[in-house]
Amino acid sequence: MKLYLDTNVFLSATESTDPFHKIALQLFESLEEQKNTATTSVETFQEIVYVAKRLKKLSLGIELCRQLLHLIPDPLAIDQPVLDEFLSLVAKFSRLDTRDCLHLAVCIECKIPYLITEDVDLRKSDIPNLKIISIKQALEI
Fold this sequence. Notes:
Radius of gyration: 14 Å
Shape: globular
Structural class: alpha/beta
Distance between the termini: 8 Å
Strand content: 5-15%
Low-confidence stretches: none
Number of domains: 1
Strand order of the largest sheet: 2-1-3-4
CATH architecture: 3-Layer(aba) Sandwich
Largest sheet: 4 strands, parallel
Number of helices: 8
Number of strands: 4
CATH class: Alpha Beta
């Protein structure tokens, strides 16, 4: 099964004080066992670097992205169809962060059935053919 991982899954796995740290590590262990396959988009890399830079840990963010490229060597691109879908989603879901709409658009256009996130607002989104679930729920599929 193909799983799209939101940025917060990667950040949770790297920060030992994060409340989802242990379960995020379990998800990555299950991915190593090839129970499911993971993907994400180039937007996730940008978000990781942005957060790291904001926290004055830029070199750590860059290193995390380099490691992430070993797990996901071909992150999904943001192309014209994704941008068109993104703009539609931003108009439809004005309550959502625009970055979340970009993740949704990638999932929709690339026909990825699961988006894994700990963002409660994002999980409330009702998108046909896309299940937006928690890390714990991902471990159960």
